[in-house]
Amino acid sequence: MLKRSGAKLTAPLGCLVSRQKHTLPDLPYDYGALEPHINAEIMQLHHSKHHATYVNNLNVTEEKYKEALAKGDVTAQVSLQPALKFNGGGHINHTIFWTNLSPNGGGEPKGELMEAIKRDFGSFANFKEKLTAVSVGVQGSGWGWLGYNKEQGRLQIAACANQDPLQGTTGLIPLLGIDVWEHAYYLQYKNVRPDYLKAIWNVINWENVSSRYSTSKK
Asked: Boundaries of each Manganese/iron superoxide dismutase N-terminal domain copy (predicted)?
């Protein structure tokens, strides 16, 4: 069986002055564990190649940014911002994504998360339909998200382009992210994104999403 590799899941994108480099988080399941909904080849490439690239480029960019800070080179600092956003966002987003999935996932959430979904979307079916529609509608590459609006005390659905991190660009606390970059599904679903989105609901880890929701309200 294909094994996942990397370090344990840790909080991504720490302080720029930290000497500790970002590392590829380990998956809490094997690459083939989400089959038949997401096949092992996709998971292996997605995790060990794509996510790893974001981590490596983030570390390189942070080193350059530290040098620019030390020199007081504001122009260089500004020029590095897009790379920090893209690679930092890619690391943040995927670190959440892996934990949002589980071979024991699917079904519906329970408890306070389910109550919040009913309150803010009318029903779980309505919520599922809306998040699916938003994710299908992402032009090019990006993510569909369920987030928590702490100021308003409610759940919200949002889409982010490319690897833009949800909280860093919208202020919403990320609870559930659906990656709709083609590398997340093309080898299995070709260009039929709706089929991938239909399948992914079978492996959503509602325990993880519920835990994130409880934490976000503190």
From this structure: 21-102
Are 211 and 200 in contact by the 8 Å Cβ rule? The answer is no
How crowded is the C-beta side of 110, counted as CA atoms within 13 Å?
4
Bond into 25 cis (ω within 30): no
| Whether the Cβ atoms of residue 114 and residue 108 lie closer than 8 Å to each other | yes
Read off φ and ψ for residue 58, nearest 5 degrees: -65, -45
* Helix 193-200 vs helix 124-136: crossing angle, to nearest 10: 150
46 annotated among ligand-binding-site residues: yes
Q: Is 183 annotated to bind ligand?
A: yes
Domain layout of the chain by residue ranges: 40-100, 111-217
Token digits for 36? Answer: 């038949």
Class of the CATH domain delimited by 111-217 = alpha beta
The CATH number corresponding to 40-100 among 1.10.390.10, 3.30.70.3400, 1.10.287.990, 1.10.10.60 equals 1.10.287.990
Q: First CA to last CA across the chain, in angstroms?
A: 40
The residue with greater pLDDT, 11 or 174, is 174
Helix or strand or coil: residue 6? coil
- Residue 51, annotated as binding a ligand: no
List Cβ neighbours of 215 (8 Å cut-off, separation of 6 or more): none
